[in-house]
Amino acid sequence: MPQLLAHLFGDFILQSDWMAQNKTKRSWPCLVHALLYSLCFVPLCWQVVIYRYSWERFDSFYLERLHGQAHHFHWLALLVIFSTHFLIDRFRLARYVVWAKNWLGPKTFEFVKMPLTNSLMSKSLHGDGVYISSDMRSCWVKVNTGHPTHRTPPLEICPTGYPPDAPAWLSNWLVIIADNTLHLAINYLALRWL
Fold first, then answer.
1. Percent of the chain having pLDDT more than 70?
2. Is there a contact between 134 and 156 (Cβ–Cβ < 8 Å)?
3. Separation CA 161–CA 93 (nearest Å)
């Protein structure tokens, strides 16, 4: 529970709108956010020694060991929490994880890259399975193959890692949940094993 509270406080309470809007565009806002986030874990990096020894017998040998290490601070755990939080947020790594996992299910369509024409441009405006590429010179056309394939849309037209025709509210929430799951898992492993 302390780890979850530290995560929620650091990732939601201490993250300003400036950080949230700019952390994927520039490194400085993401660095400030990762630093404030990591500060929430400083008390846990001291307490991790107590957590590790709570599973062992507390005879005099372990009590002496615990007393001798109570002042020890786990810098490596804090460094892992800081650096992974920075990397996951700055480069939107949860998006890549979500996109990769979407290759697991069969699809009955694939996406074909084509040059952008006026007719395809008008189809994209009406949501007819045409998605304009980031270069604005080409587009991806959704083609029904009629049989199961394992094609997922290309990453350049999947801003959240989910297909572009997925409901925006759903794909945004699911990528936020995936992002938080990555942070919580890494933080737990760092505090438990480092």
1. 64
2. yes
3. 10
Q: Which two tokens stand for residue 7?
A: 């995560």
The per-residue pLDDT for 73 is 73
pTM assigned to the model = 0.74
Query: Hey, where are the domains in the chain?
Result: 2-98+170-193, 103-165
Number of CB atoms found within 10 A of residue 126's CB: 8
Cα–Cα distances (Å) from 145 to 8, 124, 141, 150, 163, in that order, read 44, 20, 12, 11, 17
Give the whole-angstrom CA distance, residue 91 versus residue 114: 28
Q: Please tell me the predicted confidence (pLDDT) of residue 70.
A: 47
Strand order in the sheet with 107-115: 107-115, 138-149, 130-132
**Residue 135: both structure tokens together:** 């270069």
Parts of the chain with a pLDDT under 50: 54-63, 70
Closest by CA position to 111, among listed 150, 73, 74, 84: 150
